[in-house]
Design a protein that fits this description.
The complex is a heterotrimer of chains A (about 375), B (about 325) and C (about 290). Chain B is an all-alpha fold and about 325 residues long. Chain B is about 75% helix and about 0% strand. Chain B is built from 14 helices and no strands. Chain C has one domain: Orthogonal Bundle (ABC transporter involved in vitamin B12 uptake, BtuC), CATH 1.10.3470. Chain C has helices spanning about 1-35, 40-55, 60-90, 95-115, 140-160, 160-170, 175-180, 185-210, 215-230, 235-255, 265-275; strands at about 130, 135. Chain C starts with a helix and ends in a 14-residue tail after the last helix. The chains are: A alpha/beta (about 375), B mainly alpha (about 325), C mainly alpha (about 290).
Chain lengths: ~375, ~325, ~290
């Protein structure tokens, strides 16, 4: 069979065009999402849920066509809750030229990773809440929830204006999360004229809270500010109620968290916290997420799972703003972005990304009543 | 396999190969090779304590911590890296002597307990004295010494330090002191009857091991360019102990191989996903059941089988 | 002030009683195998998970306890001895101690993968008694009672029964014991099963206040190790006193000392103590092995 020169010419030029723009020809490439997380070690409690939340977000996003037609593929890396290991895994992740990095949660691991993702110009959306993380001026680092600088002032106002507390006793877990919260609390309380008479440091996983409780009882303060992990909150509160102490209980988001409520077996009743979006937020989309997550992973998702899930929506929105799925412009597109659930269902509640990488998606003043988190006041994104 | 003079060239070739391979690889393997060199230095130190003196130390992580904090805190004040390294090593060595001396007055597990106490207290000091150590927030942006700022150059620095440590320990084990160490490893009772002052040499092994922990820490801080207290808590001590035993405690090459397994672990067992640490634990137990002298023991027996005409290679000469 | 003192003392004794149980098992193990079991804390968490699992299938807590006793005796007693101690001990006690560190990794990650990373609630006794300013909770009372009963029973068993005396003879001098016709291997196995029973009891007592979580073993394991050392390491009675002392010292340190250093103060006190009584609390000066 003879091939006409015209046909040959057309064929050749077609081939040339295709070769010049492979994207137009091939099926759209898969976007690699690196998920460094605390999958073992003491941080596994939060890291595993974060990873599962991201993975569920990727699945849901892919079911709706992914990001600008590209499917997403998530790879989880175990940081072992150890910054040195975290540095290794982020290096490996970056060698694979990921579209974005989602994670980790613990401050030390975030700080180590952030230095490298910034250098590589890759967007990192993480689960950390410690106040100092976004004050470094890293243009590629983003939160997925309110930071401590946003959640602690409202609870101080509550202590001052609603509880009318004159004296406060503080109990905090002495790790990166608890210490950072404690430092902020002490500074803000001083500014607000609250008298913090007792400041008790506790260890993550300490065997007994009796000394802490007896010390708190002896201090006879009007209120107790509790900043600890869920299980320690529950243990503290159980002892607190048993001993018949009456001081008002306020604290960080963990104080009114579903896990703390469950573990405390009723002792959390009356506790008030200011918390970002969590598993008890009265938002239909969140509640349906909680149900689907429980069905899929057979465990209750805390705010870390929700944060991981929403991180995927942040990528979707940023890529749309950018107009293409390009890792380089992603961070710039995220700054100042307003993401709403009508366009991006995975965000579940409106989220505003601020200039320094903080976000604002609203928070709740919550009180535990009858084993349920009841909203006293909602503060929407400004 | 345990005779230092036989395997010294092997160790140095290993370093050179690692360096050359690292120079053409991506940042991730470069980081792993650097981390391997740093851990190996610490494990060589612990091997003196565990493998030669037979004492379990739970404080090697703290000694690494002293080295790391000394470097991270002194570098910004213009102290050259070489000095911070020596200072860190000296702090660890002196603490080793101060702690080991009373603990070794008695036999048994008291050194283990005293080192556990040191590990607990050192971690709390790193965490609580935030005016000095920056506490739980950690120390960020630790500068690497010029001209070793790039990943590859810093890897060569780590490997060079490991080479120096390797040569130093080789020399030590050949010296009269080293002969006493070797005698101590084989049989403390016989060593004592041969006139070796067992307590002094045990103390010396522990203190030198601690000092090498400090050296390793000095290299560790600028490698990751960030340190925080939890990195120098008990889990690191445990994993260093496992490195020594997996490689082969009391053997010259053991720490090199044990550290390699530990660093490469997540890569090798990647297909096991969430179960890789569990599998690692099982492998270590199986290794101790079937080859108490670790990987070195396996290799020694393999070599012996390949060369049946040679003089038999005993796992413990 | 007096009431605070009394409460700190009582809660310290309660937590110390739990340490005492675990440390006693720890000392039994080290008598039987000359080893430091670095997985002893995880040995407490395993039966706690077993009890929770049995409980979730509808068994009442006492029946779950019996299930856990059987499982612990088999897994942490017999299997641990047959699969790990017997093959590794001939290579050296140090090798075995390090192997228990690996076992700790296996158990913690096994429980993390099988049970999850969260803490789980555990049924206990709520409420307590108020005497003026002093409040004593039933859980502490029951811990103390159970520990006293268990330790007394163990002492009677060791001192008054033939098997108990045979165990002691085997621990003090295996060669002599063998000459006397004692089956030393079986006696060692019994000490392993006794340890399994003690950690299961400790799990039942501590879990209501400590909850059940995959990495809970780290803290209690180190406490048991410390208590055993204070008590003179190889002595069951010493471990009991060591455990109680550690619990009380910890509680006083945390209540009256700087809370940031709550874990350091007991350690410092114990080091000083060891320097003056290197043979432990109740021990007699041990002859140096070298």
């Amino acid at each position: 069979m003879r091939i006409s020169t015209t046909k040959l010419a057309i064929g050749c030029s077609l081939l040339a065009v295709l070769a010049a723009s492979p994207a137009a020809f091939a099926a759209k490439s898969v976007l690699e999402i690196a998920i460094p997380a605390e999958l073992s070690g003491s941080g596994a409690t939060v890291g595993v849920l974060w990873r599962d939340g991201v993975m569920m977000g990727i699945e849901d996003a892919n079911a709706k066509g992914g990001i600008r037609g590209h499917k997403l593929h998530g790879t989880a890396y175990d940081t072992q809750t150890n910054p040195a290991v975290s540095r290794a895994v982020i290096q490996k992740a970056l060698d694979g030229k990921p579209f974005a990095v989602l994670g980790p949660v613990y401050s030390g691991s975030v700080i180590v990773d952030e230095a490298l993702t910034q250098k590589a110009g890759i967007t990192e959306i993480m689960g950390g809440e410690a106040g100092n993380l976004t004050s470094q001026g890293d243009p590629t680092l983003f939160r997925t929830s309110l930071g401590q600088a946003q959640t602690i002032p409202p609870i101080i106002s509550y202590l001052k204006d609603k509880v009318h507390a004159k004296s406060v006793g503080a109990s905090y877990v002495n790790d990166d999360f608890g210490k950072a919260g404690n430092v902020l609390f002490l500074a803000d309380a001083k500014k607000a004229g609250l008298n913090v008479t007792t400041d008790i440091s506790s260890e993550a996983g300490q065997v007994t809270f009796q000394p802490d409780l007896l010390k708190m009882q002896a201090a006879k303060t009007d209120a107790v500010f509790l900043y600890d992990h869920e299980e320690e909150v529950a243990r503290f509160l159980k002892g607190f109620r048993q001993m018949g102490m009456k001081a008002a209980i306020v604290g960080g988001s963990t104080v009114a968290d579903a896990q703390a409520i469950k573990l405390s077996q009723g002792a959390a009743d009356g506790a008030v916290s200011f918390a970002g979006i969590g598993s008890s937020s009265p938002i239909p989309a969140i509640q349906s997420f909680v149900k689907r997550f429980e069905a899929k992973y057979k465990t209750h998702p805390d705010h870390n799972a929700i944060k991981g899930y929403m991180a995927v929506a942040m990528l979707q929105a940023a890529a749309d703003k950018e107009g293409k799925a390009d890792a380089k412009g992603l961070a710039a597109a995220l700054h100042g972005l307003m993401i709403t659930p009508d366009k991006y269902p995975l965000i579940m509640t409106p989220m505003k990304v601020l200039a320094n990488g903080d976000i604002d998606n609203g928070g709740y003043l919550i009180q535990v009543k009858g084993g349920k988190a009841v909203v006293l006041n909602y503060v929407g994104p400004k | 396999m345990n005779q230092p003079h036989r395997v010294l060239p092997l160790a140095l070739v290993l370093l050179l190969v690692a360096g050359l391979a690292g120079s053409v690889l991506k940042p991730y393997p470069i980081y792993l090779i650097s981390l391997w060199a740093v851990y190996t230095i610490s494990a060589i130190g612990l091997n003196l304590t565990l493998g030669f003196a037979g004492q379990i130390s739970l404080a090697q992580a703290s000694f690494v911590g002293f080295g790391a904090y000394a470097t991270a805190l002194l570098l910004p004040h213009g102290v050259p890296f070489g000095f911070t390294l020596v200072i860190g090593a000296a702090i660890s060595f002196i603490l080793g002597v101060l702690l080991g001396f009373p603990a070794l007055r008695v036999q048994g597990h008291y050194l283990a307990f005293v080192t556990l106490a040191l590990a607990t207290i050192a971690f709390l000091v790193f965490r609580n004295e935030s005016w000095l150590t920056h506490g739980t927030a950690g120390i960020d942006k630790i500068a690497r010494p010029i001209p070793f700022t790039s990943d590859v150059a810093y890897m060569w620095l780590c490997l060079a330090a490991l080479a120096v440590v390797t040569l130093g320990v080789w020399w030590l084990l050949r010296s009269p002191w080293g002969r006493a160490f070797l005698a101590l490893r084989e049989n403390p009772v016989r060593a004592a009857s041969l006139g070796v002052d067992v307590r002094t040499y045990t103390l010396l092994a522990f203190a030198i091991g601690a000092g090498l922990g400090g050296v390793s820490g000095a290299l560790f801080a600028p490698l990751g360019q960030y340190i925080e207290p939890s990195e120098f808590a008990l889990p690191l001590s445990f994993s260093l102990l496992l490195m020594v035993v997996v490689g082969g405690s009391g053997s010259f090459l053991g720490p090199f191989l044990g550290a390699m397994v530990s660093v490469a672990l997540p890569e090798v067992l990647r297909s096991f996903q969430d179960y890789y640490l569990l599998i690692y634990g099982v492998i270590v137990i199986l290794l101790l059941v079937f080859s108490p002298d670790g990987i070195v023991g396996i290799i020694a027996r393999g070599v012996a089988r390949l060369r049946p005409t040679d003089a038999p290679v005993e796992p413990k000469p | 002030m007096m009431s605070l003192f009394v409460q700190v003392l009582i809660s310290g004794l309660a937590i110390g009683a739990i340490y005492a149980l675990i440390a006693t098992g720890f000392s039994l193990l080290s008598q039987g195998s000359q080893t430091v079991n670095f997985a002893q804390g995880d040995f407490v968490v395993v039966p706690a998970f077993v009890m929770l699992a049995a409980n979730s299938y509808g068994l009442p807590i006492w029946a779950s306890f019996i299930v856990a006793l059987v499982v612990a005796a088999l897994v942490l007693g017999v299997l641990f001895k047959r699969l790990m101690v017997d093959p590794i001990l001939p290579h050296g006690a140090m090798q075995l101690s390090i192997a228990t560190m690996a076992l700790s990794i296996v158990l913690q990650n096994g429980m993390l993968n099988a049970g999850g990373a969260q803490a789980f609630p555990f049924p206990g006794i709520n409420g307590g008694l108020h005497f003026g300013n002093i409040f004593i909770d039933w859980q502490s009372v029951s811990i103390l009672l159970a520990a006293v009963v268990a330790v007394t029973a163990l002492n009677l068993f060791m001192g008054r029964t033939r098997i108990g005396r045979a165990i002691q003879a085997s621990a003090q001098g295996p060669q002599v014991a063998r000459l006397l016709g004692i089956n030393v291997a079986r006696m060692v196995l019994i000490t392993f099963v006794l340890n399994a029973a003690l950690v299961t009891l400790a799990a039942l007592l501590v879990s209501p206040i400590y909850l059940v979580k995959f990495d809970n073993g780290i803290g209690i394991g180190l406490a048991a190790f410390s208590a055993a050392i204070i008590g003179g390491f190889n002595q069951v009675r010493g471990a009991v006193v060591g455990g109680l002392l550690l619990g009380v010292v910890q509680n006083f340190a945390a209540t009256f000392g700087p809370t940031q250093y709550r874990d350091a103060v007991p350690m410092l006190l114990l080091i000083i103590f060891i320097l003056f009584r290197p043979q432990g609390l109740l021990g007699r000066a041990e002859e140096r092995r070298v």
